[in-house]
């Protein structure tokens, strides 16, 4: 999952370099790849928090959205569980 975290961090970098104010990520891998939603959600949140921490003074990104397929209730619930633990400045 380090590759996933690295990829998300790089996408945030790209968005910030292009002065994007928001970015959205799907629940990567939770569908056909069958990755556990808990692992994917943790990786996405870790990458977002690390990106924010390393770019706190020069980060144009203000909104990061996690997009979950509306019928994927399991992943949706897991993502909601992580929201209270997310600490971003």
Task: Briefly characterize the structure.
It is built from three helices and two strands, in the order αβαβα. It has 89 residues and is mainly alpha-helical. The protein has a two-stranded parallel sheet.
Describe this structure in words.
This protein is elongated. It has one domain: Leucine Aminopeptidase, subunit E, domain 1. It has a two-stranded parallel ribbon with strand order 1-2. With 89 residues, the protein is mainly alpha-helical. The longest helix is centred in the middle third of the chain and has 18 residues, at 37-54. The protein contains three helices and two strands; from the N terminus they run αβαβα.
Count the domains: 1
The shape, in one word, is elongated
DSSP helical segment count:
3
The CATH class assignment is: Alpha Beta
Q: Strand tally, please? A: 2
Straight-line N-to-C gap: 24 Å
Structural class determined from secondary elements: mainly alpha
Percent of residues in helices comes to 40-55%
Q: In percent, how much strand structure appears in the residues?
A: 5-15%
Summary tags:
single chain; 89 residues; mainly alpha; Leucine Aminopeptidase, subunit E, domain 1; two-stranded parallel ribbon; 3 helices; 2 strands; elongated
SSE layout and pairings?
Layout: H1 2-17, E1 22-26, H2 37-54, E2 63-67, H3 73-82
Parallel strand pairs: 1-2
Helix pairs in contact: 1-2, 2-3
